[in-house]
């Protein structure tokens, strides 16, 4: 490891389930809630310090989210996900 481990979110039931995306020396992480009803992103610098606090991308209180991923596109990321009920695919462009 180049740096010590750092906490990203306070909730122990908020696991990351998508690859991190590099932004120069920064890293953007897509995280989901334990029951997959929330997607959020955060941006960390090369030392693991929070540059952008965790911010919501999507919430689904009754049906959950599934099969989510994130890709960098210039200064933004595109987050894609499906609802657990199998409805249409959703996309969001986010500036981290």
Salient structural properties:
four-stranded antiparallel sheet; 96 residues; mainly beta; single chain
Order of helices and strands: EEEEEEE
Query: What composes the largest sheet?
Result: 4 strands, antiparallel
Helix content: under 10%
Mean pLDDT over the full residue set: 81
Domain unit count: 1
Distance, first to last CA: 25 Å
**How many strand elements?**
7
The DSSP helix count reads: 0
The spatial strand order of the largest sheet comes to 1-2-3-4
Low-pLDDT ranges: none
Strand content: over 45%
Structural class determined from secondary elements? mainly beta
Shape: globular
* Oligomeric state: single chain
Rg calculated over all Cα atoms: 13 Å
Task: Produce a short descriptive summary.
With 96 residues, the protein is an all-beta fold.
Structure description:
It is built from no helices and seven strands. The chain is mainly β and 96 residues long. It has one domain. Strand 3 and strand 4 form a beta hairpin. The two termini are 25 Å apart. The relative contact order is 0.21.
Question: Secondary-structure blueprint of this entry?
Answer:
Blueprint: E1 21-23, E2 26-32, E3 38-44, E4 50-59, E5 65-73, E6 76-83, E7 89-94
Antiparallel strand pairs: 1-2, 2-3, 3-4, 5-6, 6-7
């Amino acid at each position: 490891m180049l740096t010590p481990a750092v906490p990203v979110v306070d909730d122990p039931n908020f696991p990351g389930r998508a690859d991190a995306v590099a932004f120069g020396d920064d890293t953007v992480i897509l995280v989901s809630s334990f029951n997959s009803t929330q997607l959020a992103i955060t941006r960390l610098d090369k030392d693991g310090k929070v540059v952008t606090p965790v911010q919501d991308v999507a919430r689904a209180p009754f049906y959950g989210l599934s099969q989510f991923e994130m890709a960098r596109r210039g200064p933004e990321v595109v987050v894609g996900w499906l609802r657990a009920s199998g409805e249409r695919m959703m996309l969001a462009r986010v500036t981290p």
